[in-house]
Amino acid sequence: MKLFYCFFLLVFGAALRTSGQNIYPEKFDGCHLSHFCLDCGEPKAAYPADLTAYFREKLPAEATKRLKGLALVQVLVDSAGHPCVLSQVSNLGPQALAQLNLRGLINGMGPWAPAQEKGKPVNASSSLRFAFEGGQAAVTYQRFDFSKQTNLKSVGTVEILNKRQQYPAHPKGAKLEVFTQQNSIVPWDMMRVACPDQNNTVWVGTDNGLVKIEHGRMTLLNASNSGLRTKGDNKVGLLDGAVDAHNNKWFSEGYAAYRYDGTTWTRFDSTSAPLRWITGIHADANGNVYFSGSHGLARYDGTKWSALTAQNSQLPAGMTIGTFVDRKNRLWVSSYKGTVRLHEDAREVFTNGPTPLGSATFTCAAEDADGAIWFGLYDADKSKQHSGLAKYTPDGKWEVFTAANSGYPGNDVLDVAIDQQRRVVWASVNRVGLCRFDGKEWTLFTPENSAVPSTVITDISLDAEGTLWGATHAGLLKLQPR
């Protein structure tokens, strides 16, 4: 059973031993602990009674009667044994998941036995696996052995939902290269950042360091020769990146951000900026840098920091996902509860309405030469019927490309980039690979029909020559058009 969007994002790098993470897409606030390890300890955190028996008694019978599917729930168990739900993911659908109230039931459990390290209780998160079938739930621990995932490399299985469309077996017209630990100085095959700067130098953020590619030459940057800091596992894991209007390079490690001006590194965290957990970075043309995250949207204007929240800016939710500033200086901010567009004193909300942003969340966006904005869509529903690309024209009209109405292959968009010269839209599609759309024809580059190394390409960017760079879960992708 294929379960999750972003199940492969289960860990943002190798297990972080000192700084915890919400590992599943639907995240919750309220646990009040930022430092814990992921499924660590010997013994690991566990409930001192039969899990299946406990939940079969507590789960509402009416809600489980017709359910078939899975749910994973990440539970933080502090050193005193108190459980608190951090995140979850499921293919049951949002309504069914809400009726189950797994978060409430778990938070209301009695004390757990906390994880132990060197004989002492520690804060640690564990995952519970709920399997529903035949009106019953089977509940087990979802354990992760990080010692056997030294490089966390993931190719993935190609899952094209659009069964009507015929795609070329071997896409032509491009030169494709892949850089890994085996053929380059790339320090880690799993990576999440690939962004060229204004000098056409490419910056690649991996789960164990940063690679600078200048005139084809690679240089490795880590804690020994830069301002980057290691964490408890002695690795430098970078989750997102952007280049601002002044050619400063920005990177996120989760709870902190780095700025590199070519000479000096500056680190920002919750002590110096309104930053908590960072879900993305966006730099606009005016020198502003935006950080979406668990506590709204933080902005740095080159001098000072400010924050937009549900309280002071009426954002749809406390946690923000996607951010984009268009050429009209309109700020688009998405969440799992809707999207808002802010411009001067005007505010427009896209929630449960007729537009594609009323039924899906945008994770990324790019503006083409004609002023049309292309949004990559994430659909929380397992059907993925609203996943795809949405085009918003300068005159305010929408055009949506999904697996049902076009040659789009299906599944959620992880990133989007536009080749302005060739008038081509590129999208990295979850569980598929690369999708190319020239306005008429759809072309796919997957691990099955090309050298694309993974179905998970978290970040794509185009350099000044039109070369596409992709950070994948199994190496760095370089695609040169011909």
UniProtKB/TrEMBL annotation:
Cross-referenced InterPro entries: WD40/YVTN_repeat-like_dom_sf
Superkingdom of this protein's organism: Bacteria
Protein name: TonB C-terminal domain-containing protein
Species of provenance: Hymenobacter ruricola
